[in-house]
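Thread: quick sanity check before group meeting

JM: Hey all, I'm pulling together slides for Thursday and realized we never actually wrote out the predicted structure for the chain we discussed last week. Dropping the sequence here so it's in one place. If anyone has concerns about the input, flag it before I start.
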Amino acid sequence: MLKLYYTAGACALASHIALEEAGADYEIQHIDLKAGEQKTPEYLAINPAGVTPALATDDGVLTENLVIMGYVAQTHPEPNLADNGSSFNFGKMQSLNGWLGSSLHPAIGKLLFSRPPLEGEARDAQVELALKKYDLAEQHLFVGPWAMGDQYTVADGYLSVFTRWARQAALLDKARYPRLNAHLDRVQSRPAVQRVLAAEGIEAV
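JM (edit): ok, ran it. Output follows.
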């Protein structure tokens, strides 16, 4: 059985959604970042980087949403969570996932989770930077109705993590980001996603 180590509402939500959408046989274990559980010897033995997500498999541990979601999509092909028949299309999906993890995540994460919180000009500059990333997703990277087009993929759950954060922070303006707002609503209406939100003790936004 697969075991996902996650933090509620954090970026690991994307891997959790992928597993549920795939109908995988898995269990979850919450890692409380505020309590420092990610720094315990027990968890560092699983993921020495001390972050979530981590996925324990029969072959070993995988880390990083990009990798975990790709693994889930390839090992559970029936739900069509990726175009496994086309190396190019799979690569395009992973390109988007890579950008979400390496570009959008740091931009919105620094804005929302810096300690101490950003203030004044530093916060204003980070807001502008983050919103430009969302502009790029809205205008160029998001295909619609799903992230990669007509077929739902693991990229949709990943994108929804960051649009969820932006909406919670009152940054996902409906006039500026109509497509991203509609996409978030569409993702959150999926039964698998609703089950994941309930399991993590969080609500749709």
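AS: nice. The chain has a mean pLDDT of 97. Strands lie at 2-6, 26-30, 54-57, 60-63.
JM: adding both to the slides.
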